[in-house]
Amino acid sequence: MKNRCLISSLIVLASSWNNFVQGQDDLMNMLEEELLEEAKDTGEPETAIFKSTRLILGHTTKTRHKGELELLISHRFGRINTGSHELWGLDNSSVRIGLEYGIAERLNVGIGRSSFDKSFDGFFKYKLIAQSSGNGGMPISVVLLSSLAIRTTPQTEVDPTYDQFKERLAYNYQAIISRKFNSKLSLQLSPTLLIRNRPIDLTDEDQLFAIGLGGRYMITKSVSINLETFQRINPEANSTEFNAVSVGVDIETGGHVFQLHLTNSQMTFERAFIAETFDDFFDGDIHFGFNISRTFNLGKK
Protein backbone atom coordinates (compact mmCIF):
# COMPACT_ATOMS: atom_id res chain seq x y z
CA MET A 1 0.00 0.00 0.00
CA LYS A 2 2.84 2.34 0.89
CA ASN A 3 4.60 1.54 -2.40
CA ARG A 4 1.45 2.38 -4.37
CA CYS A 5 1.11 5.71 -2.54
CA LEU A 6 4.76 6.48 -3.18
CA ILE A 7 4.45 5.66 -6.90
CA SER A 8 1.30 7.76 -7.17
CA SER A 9 3.05 10.68 -5.47
CA LEU A 10 6.02 10.42 -7.82
CA ILE A 11 3.74 10.38 -10.86
CA VAL A 12 1.91 13.49 -9.63
CA LEU A 13 5.22 15.21 -8.86
CA ALA A 14 6.68 14.37 -12.28
CA SER A 15 3.53 15.59 -14.00
CA SER A 16 3.62 18.84 -12.02
CA TRP A 17 7.30 19.35 -12.81
CA ASN A 18 6.70 18.75 -16.52
CA ASN A 19 3.86 21.29 -16.52
CA PHE A 20 6.08 23.77 -14.66
CA VAL A 21 8.96 23.39 -17.15
CA GLN A 22 6.57 23.67 -20.09
CA GLY A 23 5.11 26.81 -18.54
CA GLN A 24 8.59 28.29 -18.05
CA ASP A 25 9.48 27.59 -21.70
CA ASP A 26 6.23 29.16 -22.89
CA LEU A 27 6.88 32.21 -20.71
CA MET A 28 10.43 32.61 -22.04
CA ASN A 29 9.20 32.32 -25.62
CA MET A 30 6.51 34.94 -24.97
CA LEU A 31 9.05 37.32 -23.42
CA GLU A 32 11.45 36.84 -26.32
CA GLU A 33 8.70 37.57 -28.86
CA GLU A 34 7.70 40.70 -26.94
CA LEU A 35 11.30 41.93 -26.87
CA LEU A 36 11.66 41.34 -30.61
CA GLU A 37 8.46 43.26 -31.31
CA GLU A 38 9.57 46.10 -29.03
CA ALA A 39 12.93 46.27 -30.85
CA LYS A 40 11.10 46.55 -34.17
CA ASP A 41 9.07 49.48 -32.86
CA THR A 42 11.92 51.34 -31.17
CA GLY A 43 14.75 50.61 -33.60
CA GLU A 44 16.96 48.90 -31.03
CA PRO A 45 20.26 47.44 -32.31
CA GLU A 46 20.27 43.73 -33.12
CA THR A 47 22.07 41.64 -30.50
CA ALA A 48 23.97 38.34 -30.75
CA ILE A 49 24.63 38.59 -34.49
CA PHE A 50 27.59 36.39 -33.56
CA LYS A 51 28.38 34.86 -30.17
CA SER A 52 32.12 35.55 -30.34
CA THR A 53 34.54 38.13 -31.73
CA ARG A 54 35.87 35.31 -33.96
CA LEU A 55 33.83 33.28 -36.41
CA ILE A 56 36.49 30.56 -36.63
CA LEU A 57 39.76 32.10 -37.81
CA GLY A 58 38.69 35.62 -38.73
CA HIS A 59 37.02 38.43 -36.80
CA THR A 60 33.26 38.95 -36.71
CA THR A 61 31.36 42.24 -36.36
CA LYS A 62 30.94 41.59 -32.64
CA THR A 63 32.82 44.12 -30.51
CA ARG A 64 33.37 44.30 -26.78
CA HIS A 65 31.54 46.98 -24.80
CA LYS A 66 33.47 49.73 -23.06
CA GLY A 67 35.34 48.31 -20.10
CA GLU A 68 35.11 44.67 -21.19
CA LEU A 69 38.32 42.62 -21.35
CA GLU A 70 38.40 39.36 -23.29
CA LEU A 71 41.01 36.63 -22.89
CA LEU A 72 41.14 34.50 -26.05
CA ILE A 73 43.14 31.27 -26.36
CA SER A 74 43.33 29.75 -29.85
CA HIS A 75 44.80 26.27 -30.26
CA ARG A 76 45.44 24.28 -33.46
CA PHE A 77 46.79 20.74 -33.55
CA GLY A 78 48.68 19.14 -36.43
CA ARG A 79 47.12 17.45 -39.45
CA ILE A 80 44.71 14.65 -38.64
CA ASN A 81 45.93 12.63 -41.63
CA THR A 82 49.46 12.28 -40.17
CA GLY A 83 48.21 9.04 -38.59
CA SER A 84 48.66 7.24 -35.30
CA HIS A 85 52.41 7.88 -35.03
CA GLU A 86 51.64 11.60 -34.54
CA LEU A 87 48.46 10.71 -32.62
CA TRP A 88 46.44 12.15 -35.51
CA GLY A 89 47.98 15.58 -35.10
CA LEU A 90 47.87 15.86 -31.30
CA ASP A 91 51.68 15.71 -31.03
CA ASN A 92 51.97 19.03 -32.86
CA SER A 93 50.26 22.31 -32.07
CA SER A 94 50.17 26.06 -32.63
CA VAL A 95 48.85 28.40 -29.94
CA ARG A 96 47.88 32.07 -29.82
CA ILE A 97 47.05 33.88 -26.57
CA GLY A 98 45.42 37.29 -26.90
CA LEU A 99 43.74 40.09 -24.96
CA GLU A 100 41.05 42.38 -26.37
CA TYR A 101 39.63 45.44 -24.64
CA GLY A 102 36.77 47.85 -25.26
CA ILE A 103 38.29 51.30 -24.83
CA ALA A 104 35.03 52.85 -26.08
CA GLU A 105 31.58 51.49 -26.86
CA ARG A 106 32.45 50.94 -30.53
CA LEU A 107 36.26 50.84 -30.42
CA ASN A 108 38.31 47.78 -29.44
CA VAL A 109 42.04 47.14 -29.30
CA GLY A 110 43.82 43.82 -29.03
CA ILE A 111 47.23 42.19 -28.78
CA GLY A 112 48.35 38.60 -29.17
CA ARG A 113 51.33 36.30 -29.36
CA SER A 114 51.48 33.15 -31.50
CA SER A 115 53.85 30.21 -31.27
CA PHE A 116 53.83 30.06 -35.10
CA ASP A 117 56.88 32.05 -36.23
CA LYS A 118 56.87 33.51 -32.70
CA SER A 119 54.74 36.32 -34.07
CA PHE A 120 53.17 39.22 -32.20
CA ASP A 121 50.07 40.97 -33.52
CA GLY A 122 47.91 43.91 -32.58
CA PHE A 123 44.75 45.47 -33.95
CA PHE A 124 42.19 48.27 -33.82
CA LYS A 125 38.56 47.37 -34.45
CA TYR A 126 35.83 50.00 -34.92
CA LYS A 127 32.11 49.40 -35.37
CA LEU A 128 31.07 51.90 -38.03
CA ILE A 129 27.44 50.74 -38.42
CA ALA A 130 25.30 48.58 -36.12
CA GLN A 131 22.38 46.61 -37.55
CA SER A 132 19.06 47.71 -36.12
CA SER A 133 15.38 47.18 -36.82
CA GLY A 134 12.37 49.46 -36.79
CA ASN A 135 11.83 52.76 -38.54
CA GLY A 136 15.09 54.08 -39.95
CA GLY A 137 16.96 50.93 -38.92
CA MET A 138 20.15 49.72 -40.57
CA PRO A 139 20.03 46.38 -42.43
CA ILE A 140 23.71 45.52 -41.83
CA SER A 141 26.59 45.91 -39.41
CA VAL A 142 29.96 47.20 -40.63
CA VAL A 143 33.22 46.92 -38.68
CA LEU A 144 36.60 48.28 -39.80
CA LEU A 145 39.67 46.29 -38.76
CA SER A 146 43.33 47.27 -39.02
CA SER A 147 46.03 44.93 -37.73
CA LEU A 148 49.80 44.56 -37.67
CA ALA A 149 51.83 41.35 -37.33
CA ILE A 150 55.55 41.10 -36.49
CA ARG A 151 57.51 37.91 -37.17
CA THR A 152 60.24 37.41 -34.53
CA THR A 153 61.89 34.17 -35.66
CA PRO A 154 65.69 34.59 -36.09
CA GLN A 155 67.32 35.08 -39.45
CA THR A 156 68.43 32.05 -41.45
CA GLU A 157 71.58 31.34 -43.43
CA VAL A 158 69.44 30.99 -46.57
CA ASP A 159 67.98 34.48 -46.15
CA PRO A 160 70.41 36.64 -44.13
CA THR A 161 68.65 39.92 -45.01
CA TYR A 162 65.49 38.74 -43.29
CA ASP A 163 66.80 40.16 -40.04
CA GLN A 164 65.82 43.66 -41.15
CA PHE A 165 62.95 44.76 -38.90
CA LYS A 166 60.78 46.30 -41.61
CA GLU A 167 60.77 43.02 -43.57
CA ARG A 168 59.21 41.25 -40.60
CA LEU A 169 56.06 43.36 -40.74
CA ALA A 170 52.69 42.61 -42.35
CA TYR A 171 49.57 44.80 -42.40
CA ASN A 172 45.95 43.73 -42.68
CA TYR A 173 42.94 45.92 -43.51
CA GLN A 174 39.37 44.62 -43.50
CA ALA A 175 35.82 45.87 -43.81
CA ILE A 176 33.66 43.24 -42.10
CA ILE A 177 30.00 43.36 -43.20
CA SER A 178 27.37 41.18 -41.54
CA ARG A 179 23.62 40.71 -41.43
CA LYS A 180 21.46 38.79 -38.98
CA PHE A 181 18.56 37.50 -41.10
CA ASN A 182 16.62 35.91 -38.26
CA SER A 183 17.19 34.37 -34.82
CA LYS A 184 19.11 31.46 -36.39
CA LEU A 185 21.02 32.70 -39.46
CA SER A 186 23.81 35.31 -39.64
CA LEU A 187 26.15 35.85 -42.61
CA GLN A 188 29.18 38.05 -43.16
CA LEU A 189 31.50 39.25 -45.91
CA SER A 190 35.07 40.51 -45.31
CA PRO A 191 36.91 42.30 -48.15
CA THR A 192 40.60 42.18 -47.18
CA LEU A 193 43.88 43.80 -48.19
CA LEU A 194 47.01 42.12 -46.85
CA ILE A 195 50.41 43.81 -47.28
CA ARG A 196 53.58 41.82 -46.54
CA ASN A 197 56.88 43.68 -46.60
CA ARG A 198 58.56 40.38 -47.43
CA PRO A 199 56.51 37.30 -48.45
CA ILE A 200 57.90 33.87 -47.59
CA ASP A 201 57.98 33.10 -51.30
CA LEU A 202 59.75 36.08 -52.90
CA THR A 203 57.85 35.46 -56.15
CA ASP A 204 54.54 36.27 -54.42
CA GLU A 205 52.94 39.69 -54.62
CA ASP A 206 53.53 42.01 -51.66
CA GLN A 207 49.84 43.01 -51.75
CA LEU A 208 47.27 40.24 -51.56
CA PHE A 209 43.53 40.78 -51.90
CA ALA A 210 41.09 38.31 -50.38
CA ILE A 211 37.40 37.92 -49.59
CA GLY A 212 36.28 36.32 -46.35
CA LEU A 213 32.91 34.54 -46.43
CA GLY A 214 31.23 33.06 -43.39
CA GLY A 215 28.05 32.31 -41.58
CA ARG A 216 26.47 30.96 -38.43
CA TYR A 217 23.32 28.87 -37.99
CA MET A 218 21.90 28.41 -34.49
CA ILE A 219 20.91 24.84 -33.57
CA THR A 220 19.83 25.80 -30.05
CA LYS A 221 20.10 29.05 -28.08
CA SER A 222 23.64 28.12 -27.01
CA VAL A 223 24.96 25.94 -29.90
CA SER A 224 25.64 26.96 -33.50
CA ILE A 225 27.25 25.58 -36.67
CA ASN A 226 29.80 27.93 -38.30
CA LEU A 227 31.36 27.96 -41.78
CA GLU A 228 34.18 30.21 -43.01
CA THR A 229 36.58 30.60 -45.92
CA PHE A 230 39.07 33.21 -47.12
CA GLN A 231 39.41 33.24 -50.90
CA ARG A 232 42.54 34.92 -52.32
CA ILE A 233 41.73 37.06 -55.35
CA ASN A 234 45.18 37.62 -56.88
CA PRO A 235 47.45 34.67 -55.95
CA GLU A 236 50.41 33.79 -58.13
CA ALA A 237 49.64 31.25 -60.87
CA ASN A 238 52.11 28.73 -59.40
CA SER A 239 51.24 29.48 -55.76
CA THR A 240 51.79 26.61 -53.30
CA GLU A 241 49.40 28.15 -50.74
CA PHE A 242 45.70 27.29 -50.41
CA ASN A 243 42.58 29.20 -49.43
CA ALA A 244 41.64 28.79 -45.77
CA VAL A 245 38.50 26.66 -45.28
CA SER A 246 36.95 25.95 -41.88
CA VAL A 247 33.86 24.40 -40.28
CA GLY A 248 33.08 24.58 -36.58
CA VAL A 249 30.68 24.46 -33.65
CA ASP A 250 30.16 27.21 -31.05
CA ILE A 251 29.02 26.33 -27.52
CA GLU A 252 28.13 29.20 -25.19
CA THR A 253 28.15 28.61 -21.42
CA GLY A 254 27.65 31.83 -19.47
CA GLY A 255 30.76 33.99 -19.79
CA HIS A 256 32.61 31.36 -21.85
CA VAL A 257 32.36 30.55 -25.55
CA PHE A 258 33.92 27.26 -26.67
CA GLN A 259 34.60 26.99 -30.39
CA LEU A 260 35.55 23.60 -31.83
CA HIS A 261 36.54 23.43 -35.49
CA LEU A 262 38.22 21.67 -38.39
CA THR A 263 40.41 23.79 -40.67
CA ASN A 264 43.29 23.51 -43.12
CA SER A 265 45.13 26.42 -41.45
CA GLN A 266 47.15 25.85 -38.30
CA MET A 267 47.72 29.58 -37.87
CA THR A 268 45.49 32.02 -36.03
CA PHE A 269 46.16 35.57 -37.30
CA GLU A 270 45.46 37.19 -40.67
CA ARG A 271 48.87 37.22 -42.36
CA ALA A 272 49.34 33.54 -41.63
CA PHE A 273 45.96 31.99 -42.36
CA ILE A 274 45.20 34.15 -45.41
CA ALA A 275 48.61 34.03 -47.12
CA GLU A 276 50.50 31.11 -45.56
CA THR A 277 48.10 28.15 -45.51
CA PHE A 278 50.03 25.29 -47.12
CA ASP A 279 47.50 22.48 -46.48
CA ASP A 280 44.68 21.43 -48.79
CA PHE A 281 41.39 21.00 -46.91
CA PHE A 282 39.87 18.90 -49.70
CA ASP A 283 42.88 16.58 -49.79
CA GLY A 284 42.46 15.71 -46.13
CA ASP A 285 45.03 18.14 -44.70
CA ILE A 286 42.76 19.09 -41.81
CA HIS A 287 43.65 20.38 -38.35
CA PHE A 288 41.43 20.06 -35.29
CA GLY A 289 41.41 23.17 -33.14
CA PHE A 290 39.52 25.23 -30.62
CA ASN A 291 39.07 28.78 -29.33
CA ILE A 292 38.21 29.52 -25.71
CA SER A 293 37.23 33.02 -24.65
CA ARG A 294 36.44 34.51 -21.26
CA THR A 295 35.14 38.04 -20.79
CA PHE A 296 35.74 40.20 -17.72
CA ASN A 297 33.82 43.41 -17.06
CA LEU A 298 36.29 45.99 -15.75
CA GLY A 299 34.04 48.99 -16.33
CA LYS A 300 31.43 48.29 -13.66
CA LYS A 301 31.72 47.62 -9.94
Describe the 3D structure:
- With 301 residues, the chain is of the alpha+beta class.
- It has 2 domains: 42 residues; 252 residues, monomeric porin ompg (Porin, Beta Barrel), CATH 2.40.160.
- It has a 12-stranded antiparallel β-barrel with strand order 1-2-3-4-5-6-7-8-9-10-11-12.
- Strand 6 and strand 7 form a beta hairpin.
- The protein is globular.
- The N terminus is likely disordered.
Task: Tell me the number of structural domains.
Answer: 2
CATH architecture of the largest domain: Beta Barrel
Give a short account of the largest sheet: 12 strands, antiparallel, barrel
Biggest sheet strand order reads 1-2-3-4-5-6-7-8-9-10-11-12
Spans of at least 5 consecutive residues whose pLDDT stays below 50 are 1-7, 9-14, 23-32, 38-42
Throw out a few tags for this protein.
Porin, alpha+beta, 42% strand, disordered N terminus, twelve-stranded antiparallel β-barrel, 301 residues
Quick rundown:
The chain is α+β, with helices and mostly antiparallel strands. It folds into two domains: 1-42; 46-297, Beta Barrel (Porin), CATH 2.40.160.
How would the blueprint of this fold be written?
Blueprint: H1 2-42, E1 68-79, E2 93-102, E3 107-114, E4 119-129, E5 141-150, E6 169-180, E7 185-196, E8 207-218, E9 223-232, E10 244-253, E11 256-263, H2 270-275, E12 287-297
Antiparallel strand pairs: 1-2, 1-12, 2-3, 3-4, 4-5, 5-6, 6-7, 7-8, 8-9, 9-10, 10-11, 11-12
